[in-house]
Amino acid sequence: MAIRSSTVFFLVLLSSSINAFYLPGLAPNVFCRNPIPDSKCKTKVEVFVNRLDSVESVLPYEYPYFDFCSVTDEPSPVENLGQVLFGERIRPSPYKFDFLKNDDCHFVCRKKYEAGDAQKQKLLKRLMKGMVLNYQQHWIIDNMPVTLCYRNTENQEFCARGFPIGCYVTKSGQSKETCNIRDGKNDTFYVFNHLDFEIIYHSGQDETWGTAFGENGGRIIAAKVQVNSLNSDKCERGSEPLMFQSTAKDVEISFTYSVKFVKNNDIRWASRWDYILKSLPQTRIQWFSILNSLVIVLFLSGMVAMILLRTLHKDIARYNQMVDADDAQEEFGWKL
Does 311 share its domain with 189? Predict the structure, then answer.
């Protein structure tokens, strides 16, 4: 009995020296309006960019490939296990928000493509090709995808984990389903250079984790975006869309955004993925990628099976030779 009591006491002492740990992306981040001493709450909401892909192409591209606004002096964030397994390429971006501070118009950068610059014209052709193939951007805020939400024909909300870089209206007047340009001109490119962000958060008021800041802080439960094409660096809603045709040479694009914070205490942080999961059955499946993965798995499995069969065949043949040699020696050897 004394030995058991001493063992329990030793385990209690040992447990007090154990440090807890968590996987990146699993612990909730807390944001607050202003810095608070001795608090781990963040005042900046950072937007991270990821690689771009398309259901019409098998080639993904990293964010700088299309010459968007980017930063080069900041380190890339630590990716969690799921992001590593899916081969994502997460990079920092110049899009950063002050928590709980709405911004109606914020200028990010300006890109100029001059006719006499061969390198700039090459980048412009890349952007055109990306819009023709309907490449999608995948941005991340607080380890959650930035979603583009809209109503379908059945008046149900559908949220896609990505948004297009632009819209191309063909020579026959057709465009992609995600193109929100009305009365678009034929053979014209429309760049979605203005983004309207909506950050939905759960307030820390009346919460045990929010005693230090109350209603001036919270946890992000959703990040949504709406894309627009504006030919203005002042975010003028009545301006013409930013458009150019395939024969254009001199093009200037100004990238801007607006952000609005919305409080919603009906949704808990643990349930913030529910609205995205409801939209998953309607997503388009990339059958080519699935078929490609299956072919690779079958090919590698066949190679391993052939190697194992050849090894086993050699081992069995060697064993049979040893048995035959022993039988021959027993039959023809000296006998007493």
Answer: no
**Distance set, CA 254 to CA 24, 199, 235, 285 (Å):** 35, 23, 10, 34
pLDDT at 67: 92
d(CA 239, CA 126): 26
Buried b or exposed e, range 308-332, using 16+ CB within 10 angstroms = eeeeeeeeeeeeeeeeeeeeeeeee
- 326 phi and psi, to 5 degrees? -65, -40
pLDDT on residue 139: 96
pTM over 0.90: no
In a domain, 2, yes or no: no
CA–CA–CA angle 21, 24, 30 (5° rounding)? 90
d(CA 208, CA 76): 32
Same-domain pairing of 272 and 316? no
pLDDT score recorded for residue 279:
79
290 shares its domain with 280:
no
Element (H, E) at 70: none
Q: Are residues 182 and 307 in the same domain?
A: no
267-286 per-position pLDDT tens digit = 999 999 998 888 776 545 56
Whether 254 and 313 share a structural domain: no
How far CA 295 is from CA of 284, 291, 305, in Å, comes to 21, 6, 15
171 and 36: one domain? yes
Please report the pLDDT score of residue 21 as a whole number: 38
